[in-house]
Amino acid sequence: MLDVHGMLTFGDGDVAGALWQTGGRLHPVLVHFPLALVALAAGAEVLSAVAGRRGGVGRGLGMMMRGPSALARGCLVVGAPAAGVTAWSGWLNAMHEHGGGGPLEIEGHRWVGIAAAAVALMAMASVLAASWRVTETGMRVYRALVVLAAMLMGVAGHMGGSLVYGGDYLFSPLRRALGWERAETHAGTTPVAPEDAGPPVDFAAEVWPILESTCIDCHGDVRKRGQLRLDSLAAALKGGKTGPGVVKGDPGASHVIRRVKGLDGKVIMPEDADPLTPEQIEVLERWVRQGAVWPETLGAADTSVEERHWAYEPLAEVRGAAGEGVIDRLIGARLSAEGVSPAGRAEPGVLLRRLSLDMTGLPPATKELDAFERSPTGEAWSKAEAAAIEEWIVAAGEVWEDHPKRAAPRDLNGEKLESEGDPEIRTRMSQYELAFRMQASVPELMDIGGEPAAVHETYGTTPGKASFANNCLLARRLVERGVRFVQLYHWGWDSHGTGSGDDLVTSLKQRCVETDRASAALVMDLKQRGLLEDTLVVWGGEFGRTPMNEARNGSTFLGRDHHPKCFSIWMAGGGVKKGTVYGSTDELGYNVATDPVHMHDLQATILHLLGMDHTKLTYRYQGRNFRLTDVFGSVVPGLLA
Question: Which of 131, 203, 375, 545 might form a disulfide with 207, Cβ 3.0–4.6 angstroms?
Fold first, then answer.
């Protein structure tokens, strides 16, 4: 079926989106075919031109006038459209994998590829024209285009290879053979002695989170970009096309460190995320200097990462250093009852972490963990176990002790109010009571289906359908029930004219249809029920619109930009003077001409209509009293009844 975006979907899957993404990922498969054909066409024409020159100028001119070779013509007719399809596939790949943008290397590769496809198509057009009518100028243009297309495709191919294998992939074997790469890569770096390598690094807590969040997505067991994996120590030491990912004791020789620092003139890694912070880079360098210690529980021997942290280890048969304890017997009995065979014994430090997390919800303090791991004796385990159980019992007891308080908050709050006399307690009590009454009344309040048919006809409402009209009817029902402040929103007024859904001809008209009838019905309904005299209705937006048309980004749709110098609102009820138009603009509607009303004036007037003096309504903030209208604003008498 088709969803609202026009995508072909089955179940929960976006089939069309998946097909487009698959088309993008065909790009590396398709790219070699047009590259070979266009290169062959260029080579054929170059050989033809060279052969003609060796035979003399006259023969060369004759060769040129004879027309393109059949080989070149056939290669271009097939290869140029294939180059267009390849460029299109690369565009899709960039859209899906990089959101339409990406690092400079990716953007350069994409646009050079598009240029190569465009030139190849131009060369195909010229070869077809030259086959129909041969001219010297036409042949020169054709041969220049086909050679340029081949060169651009070669550059694009090299850039694509650099993205996969690194910028020096083409000449790195020769450099290694000549002994140049080692001298360049390791220049100025010497392994640091462990005692000078800085504070010890906790791999699980400091290093692995960095690798997992920034590196594993591209260099794990799925993508393996550049044939480099960083999901285990064995894989990191082995490295990829550009060398070892990690060299123990030598950050300068470790490819990972050099790429995250942007050395060797390459793009800073990771490509698709923010660069690492200096603190994160310092952690990785310190880890490498200290010998790149990598616990076996993080990453298996086959370089896959299945158990990433001690918390993900299989449940073990929990036994303390001194043997079986209370918790051991409890868990063991349940495992036996369920017919589950326990796994092997976990390390003492892991046991203590699990004990603390299970019993208290918090990990043990670092000092506690260090002290325990230095002496994981039976006595130490028993003490830790007893302390965790005691803390759990105390916490559980506090919950049950507090239960009566939760059951009778009003009584306790009342006692507190009598003893303290703090008016904020009474305010908080009334807020809770109001919240309860609102929750109890919401089901009946929200059901507008019981309103008479005439009311639905007046508002234009449809029960069960989200609309501004439904909100207006709900506003009247809220006011009826004593709700003091009701605010309605309706979107879609930002009519800049960027498209058919954001213009003055279609979009603005639709917004007016959605709001005018319901807004008028709300005012009439409030008046008929005797509620309008005590209810102030304010209808407005955040600013006005320019009187002239806006052509944003060259759009052909009619639109208008933001305009704060003058705009209109309307008010009704609540003591507002009926049938009054206050203020006016110039003939263009650009500036206020008569009776300007500043926003502070409007706010002061609204507060006055609500029975508040804006000059006396203050609140304390940062050591001084503030007014809602600051030090400005005057009530506008012309708006008052």
Answer: 203
